[in-house]
Amino acid sequence: MRQEIMRQYNKAVMLALLAGLACQSAAGDGVRFGRVPVKDADVVALTNKRWDKRVYLRENGKQYDLFAAYENYDIETIIRRGRYLALFLFSYGIAEDMEEGKRYHEVPHCMFVERRTGCVLGEGSQFTCDGEWVQAAVWQPRDREAWNMRALRKQVLAGTDKEGAENRRRCGMR
Questions:
Q1: Which of 165-170's residues contact partners 24+ apart within 8 Å by CB, and which partners?
Q2: CA-CA-CA-CA torsion sign (85, 13, 38, 74)
Q3: Is 18 helix (H, G, I), strand (E, B) or coil?
Q4: Which domain holds residue 147?
Q5: Minimal CA–CA distance to 105: which of 116, 97, 113, 114?
Q6: How many domains does the chain have?
Q7: Signal peptide span per the entry (predicted)?
Q8: What is the distance between the alpha carbons of residues 78 and 16, in angstroms, rounded to a whole number?
């Protein structure tokens, strides 16, 4: 029963993603979406999940997985507003313990990205995902402080950590 529900859910998500892909491709954005097969046999066995939706940045004739830091992730929802995207994704894996054995484990994330450059403006928790665009550059989670994309971009550009250097370069592009 659970596998059938997961299969129907995955089919519905894929159809929604493909509809979004059609709009996205026509927009000429630097950010693209695609799908890759799930390679972990345990994930396939426990969830019947066959494909992951991924986000890519096309730059200088090459394509990069924007969230390659997550070994396994799947984009569930894409909400576009002007020059920004709110991406709801799950990083996942297999957890194993002595009592329950192997089980599927996922962690929800909200990523805010500039469509043209691929600049990652911020990442939030599952509580951040529960919200909506209230202005062109403002995401308002329920019962939480708003996320202003322009202010987040300034914070990214002001950063000095080595790990964020590539993202700062993308954020500096106009």
A1: 167/119, 167/120, 170/57, 170/114, 170/117, 170/118, 170/119, 170/120
A2: positive
A3: helix
A4: 2-172
A5: 97
A6: 1
A7: 1-27
A8: 9
